[in-house]
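Appendix C: a fully annotated inverse folding record. The material below is reproduced so that readers can follow the format used throughout the book. The structure is listed first as tokens, followed by the designed sequence.
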């Protein structure tokens, strides 16, 4: 167990927000988590689990013991007629794992390419993009309980996945360190191309039957045009979840704003595009202090240089108020505010 004190967290969060961790412990395996649990000082102290810091907004110095998850390793652990199952350490970089599985000839993660962060955080918010959610490629995970030090294995049903949601945002929030994740890559492989921008790319290219590498390249190209690179402009990706409303609520909004972008869900409810709502309120390209709304995508808040977490939160609240004032909808932030 390796512990450091007074750690500057700016390089460890993609928003590049300033904050200092009083104590940070790098976790390379389950034994490290157990050593923390058994430690006379750290055992009972509050903890904060950190992966790649791409879904957090740090508003202050962190007094809780920061557990920086760095568990490595990737392997094929099962080859079944219906799937390849791969196991990855929670500290592996998500995008590297996506690229590696494709190189190995185990497609299925290509729509989730270029999502920043670690494998261990992927189940926390059930990452999703371009028509695929993690839960559709998930087999099971290992986690260590931060009170008992016991290792547990959770199946898909036990993780209670939802839209950008899982048990790790509720009962197990901050209580369990995910150490390993097993991904199920279905056989035979079928491309998922229903997403409008992918359909457009396919039509432009004239490719009738794309392979997984082709889909991967399209997803990467689309993301590079739409989203700011955190290495250049600090951000945490989509800042708000797309709100889900009833058909009656949606009809009411369409009555007033016929152009509102919306999608019908299988359960009859309707998902509204949060980016459209924010844009309609005139926020695209605007700033509050040194925090701003990205010019090309209203759902992404950015650090215009030297912003504090408090400035980001002030901007987010102002957006929430104006969207609520105009549409009666409360936008819910996607990143974890610390
Ligand atoms: C440019 C950009 C684009 C993005 N695009 C998408 C997208 O398309 N789809 C999408 O779903 N998300 C997207 N995101 C959000 C983000 O990439 C994901 O949420 C990612 O899974 C976060 O990983 P992380 O390792 O950085 O987690 P962190 O930000 O470090 O942590 C996020 C949360 O998970 C918890 N956590 C982290 N690791 C563990 C662990 N091992 N065990 C238990 N809890 C843990 C933390 O305590 C925290 O609550 C984007 C972000 C950026 C910056």
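Designed amino acids, in order:
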């Amino acid at each position: 167990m390796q512990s450091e004190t007074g750690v500057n967290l700016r390089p460890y969060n993609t928003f590049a927000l300033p904050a200092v961790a009083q104590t940070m412990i790098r976790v390379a395996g389950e034994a490290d988590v157990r050593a923390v649990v058994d430690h006379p000082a750290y055992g009972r102290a509050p903890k904060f689990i950190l992966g790649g810091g791409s879904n957090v907004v740090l508003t202050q110095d962190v007094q809780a013991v920061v557990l920086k998850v760095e568990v490595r390793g990737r392997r094929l652990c099962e080859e079944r007629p219906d799937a390849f199952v791969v196991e990855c350490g929670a500290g592996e970089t998500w995008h590297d794992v996506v690229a590696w599985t494709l190189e190995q000839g185990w497609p299925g993660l290509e729509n989730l390419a270029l999502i920043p962060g670690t494998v261990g955080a992927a189940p926390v918010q059930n990452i999703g993009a371009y028509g695929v959610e993690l839960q559709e490629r998930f087999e099971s995970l290992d986690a260590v309980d931060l009170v008992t030090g016991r290792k547990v294995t959770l199946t898909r049903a036990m993780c209670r996945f939802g839209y950008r949601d899982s048990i790790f945002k509720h009962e197990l929030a901050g209580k369990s360190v995910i150490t390993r994740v097993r991904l199920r890559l279905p056989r035979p492989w079928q491309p998922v191309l229903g997403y409008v921008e992918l359909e457009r790319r396919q039509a432009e290219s004239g490719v009738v039957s794309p392979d997984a590498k082709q889909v991967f390249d399209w997803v990467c190209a689309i993301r590079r045009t739409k989203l700011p690179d955190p290495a250049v402009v600090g951000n945490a990706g989509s800042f708000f979840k797309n709100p889900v409303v009833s058909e009656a609520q949606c009809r009411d909004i369409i009555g007033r704003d016929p152009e509102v972008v919306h999608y019908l869900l299988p359960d009859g409810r309707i998902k509204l595009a949060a980016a459209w709502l924010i844009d309609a309120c005139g926020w695209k390209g605007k700033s509050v202090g040194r925090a701003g709304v990205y010019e090309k995508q209203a759902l992404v808040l950015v650090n215009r240089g030297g912003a504090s977490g408090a400035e980001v939160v002030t901007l987010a609240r102002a957006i929430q108020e104006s969207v609520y004032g105009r549409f009666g909808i409360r936008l819910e932030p996607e990143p974890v505010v610390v």
